[in-house]
Protein: Glucosyl-3-phosphoglycerate synthase
Organism: Paenibacillus algorifonticola
Amino acid sequence: MKKAKGAKGKKARSFRAVKKARSAQSNLVADDYTGESQALQSPVVSVIIPVMNERATIRRVIREAADVHPRTEVIVVANGSTDGSAEIARRAGARVFRYEKALGHDVGRSIGARAALGQVLLFVDGDMVISTAQLRHFVYAVLHRGVDAALNDYTGPVDKTDVHSVVLAKYTLNIVLERPELKGASFTAVPHAISRQGLSLIGAEALCVPPLAHARAIRLGLKVEAVHTVNVGKMNKRRPQRERRSPLEHLIVGDHLEAIHWLITQSNERGGFEDYRRCREFAL
């Protein structure tokens, strides 16, 4: 029992350390930054791609992303890459931000959003080649339908006994936000797009904790919709059965808890849900 408790404590400390580091890294000082390529003038769409050692896919990812609109800038945030991904991205026409160190999960989204010049910000990952035709659904929803946050309508597998904790966290957050129809759709999954207005209200710093950005968008009254389904589950790298639990699982669940904590601070200890005149004083 002591061994298990120690392991649990170590995991908790590790989780807190990652969260603290990730928060600090979203405000990196100039010394951490090693280069950027030239920006496109007056883009309509900014595609933001965090990259860490994605040389096998990054060229194709950029090629598909660059064609979503005639005036598209592609921003690659290469952090901790040692395989030449940044140079490949630069040659492919991307605007590249290079950081020698790994910045932590999703910090690249915040950095890319701060640098973006477009009216639509489209977020994709460097290891998932998603076709231009698929990506255009998200851009179209923001440009022509007035959507502020166009989400991937991918809910994750729920038709089995052991539902992944991240899937449960997404569903739970949407229920707490009183948007159960979104099911498991959220800022956590790519691709998704946000409007310039959405970015201004949510704040670029919140994007490094996607569930927090998701909660802010809904609570602040932005138009948030699941607009198109891209089955990113099939694109994720296959792991042996013993490794099916992602090392990021606890981090992402913690992100959802952070989002719920933020919601509570904006309302009350019940997140705005009724207590129905329960006379708790008589239970004391």
